[in-house]
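Why do we care about 3D structure at all? Because function follows from shape, and shape follows, mostly, from sequence. That is the central idea of this module. The next example makes it concrete: a single protein chain, its amino acid sequence, and then its structure expressed as tokens.
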Amino acid sequence: MNYKNIRIFVLVAISAPLFLFSCVGEKKDGGSVKEDINMPRMTLDSQDTIIVDQLATEFIEHLKNKEYEDAISMLYYLHPDSSIVPMPRNLAIRQEQIFRTFPVLDYRFESIRFRTETDCQVKFNITFARSAEGEDRTTSLYLQPIRRDGQWYLTVRDSSSPAGSVSRIEN
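And the structure:
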């Protein structure tokens, strides 16, 4: 076998598995990536966006007005058994401490993202401190709206919140 034949053999040996690997998971009808059929689908309409926006805005306005109890009363907790319950008292106390530590002096709505009924996100950029030089100190506040039986509930995103990035929404 000469040098040219060895190069062709190596090229085929390397590219054949890559080609085969790139074809895995594609549908024959258009080449789109195969979807997980076990994931639930979520249907949305403009009313969902309006409701989530109103809930989130009411919540952030309560924080801006230092109405912490009113804001916290809007929050729910997604229990590990998948039930939605009002925020437990121990979590409400911790959440109020966070809101007092990072008060909302001003805010800017950033985005709403709908993924699944338990993995949606509303993002606000908040100003929590101002220096004498006029520099604002900011951070992001994430809410996690959850829809159950047609009703929207606000929860607070944390490190244990789902972090899926594949949308399962049908319009």
